[in-house]
TrEMBL record:
CDD domains: KISc_KIP3_like (cd01370). PANTHER family: CENTROMERE PROTEIN E, KINESIN-LIKE PROTEIN. This is Kinesin-like protein. GO terms for molecular function: ATP binding; microtubule binding; microtubule motor activity. Its main location: other. Belongs to the TRAFAC class myosin-kinesin ATPase superfamily. Kinesin family. Plus end-directed microtubule-dependent motor protein that regulates the length of motile cilia by mediating depolymerization of microtubules at ciliary tips. GO terms for biological process: microtubule-based movement.
Length: 313
């Protein structure tokens, strides 16, 4: 459960800094090393959330970390090693089929990206930029998004792979197919009982799976011009997310914290999943390379703060 981050620049003979090590130890719920398989990561992080979604709770999974540490691999995976998206949906459909005798269910999903603070539909990219709106019950809706209804995991895999090709990817110095946008897969499960007496009751569970854009510094990717501007937007939304996490993790402290979800589209969309009625998992990715020591340190601090959020589900 422990991550020990060693400082690569430490010089053992440096007397002035002998007592000032930047070595840090972090404790998390689970830590995976380079030998972990997709299956292990999935079972330890996400598998337990599926039951909740079927019972009508919300769940959210984040992949966070600098560029090139494997966020998209964890979430989407490859054909022979599928990632969390596919494994979760396969298990979700199996679990739903088990309840099919008593329940009528529908599953709809949408896949979108947030790039430069505008929302694009990845399943129908020609629809242009979409708006976030709040309905009378206070839940956030995206006007005009495509919702695909299917209960076949294979179809979904094709939809996701197609959608992922539509993502804004640009080469940076850190990674030649760096995803420059946050991708959000939203799955909504609606269930109605088949018995007449309680037929009015509906259970709605939402599952968000978020593949965030890389959180590295501009110097690391040697960004200039358009890439730089794009990086600023990415950092802005990740900063807004960090601010929300900070405010939420300090809640219940001495002073009542105001949580500013309106700072970016990302946090508005995930408002419920951060502080509200949701079980949330953050999978933080770090690189073992000594050149990305600072990035790894920031990522671990960020994830460690997120660990302190207590949500009331």
């Amino acid at each position: 459960q422990r991550v020990v981050l060693m400082d690569p620049s430490e010089d053992p003979d440096d007397i002035l800094r002998a007592n000032r090590s930047r070595e840090k130890t972090f404790v998390f719920d689970v830590v995976f090393d380079h030998r972990a398989t997709q299956e292990e990561v999935y079972v330890s992080t996400t598998k337990s959330l599926i039951e909740g979604v079927i019972s009508g709770y919300n769940a959210t999974i984040f992949a966070y970390g600098p560029t090139g540490t494997g966020k998209t691999y964890t979430m989407l995976g490859t054909d022979c090693e599928p990632g969390i998206y596919i494994r979760t949906l396969e298990d979700l459909f199996k679990a739903l089929e088990a309840t099919a005798e008593e329940m009528d269910y529908t599953v709809s999903m949408s896949y979108l990206e947030i790039y430069n603070e505008v929302i694009r539909d990845l399943l129908n990219p020609s629809s242009g930029f979409l708006d976030l709106r709040e309905d009378s019950r206070g839940s956030i809706q995206i006007a005009g998004i495509t919702e695909a209804s299917t209960t076949n995991a294979q179809e979904i895999m094709q939809l996701l792979t197609k959608g992922n090709k539509q993502r804004t990817q640009e080469p940076t110095a850190a990674n030649k197919t760096s995803s420059r946008s946050h991708a959000v897969l939203q799955v909504t499960v609606t269930q109605k009982s088949r018995r007449q007496a309680i037929g009015k009751e509906m259970r709605i569970g939402k599952l968000f799976m978020v593949d965030l854009a890389g959180s590295e510094r501009a110097a690391q990717t040697q960004n200039r011009g358009k890439r730089m501007k794009e990086g600023a937007h990415i950092n802005r939304s990740l900063l807004a997310l960090g601010n929300c996490i900070n405010a939420l993790s300090e809640k219940g402290g001495s002073r009542a914290q105001f949580v500013n979800f309106r700072d970016s589209k990302l946090t508005r969309l995930l408002k419920d999943s951060l502080g509200g009625n949701s079980r949330t998992v953050m999978i933080a990715h770090i690189s073992p390379a000594s050149t990305s020591f600072e990035e790894s340190r920031m990522t671990l601090i960020y994830a460690y703060r997120a660990k302190n959020i207590k949500t009331q589900v």
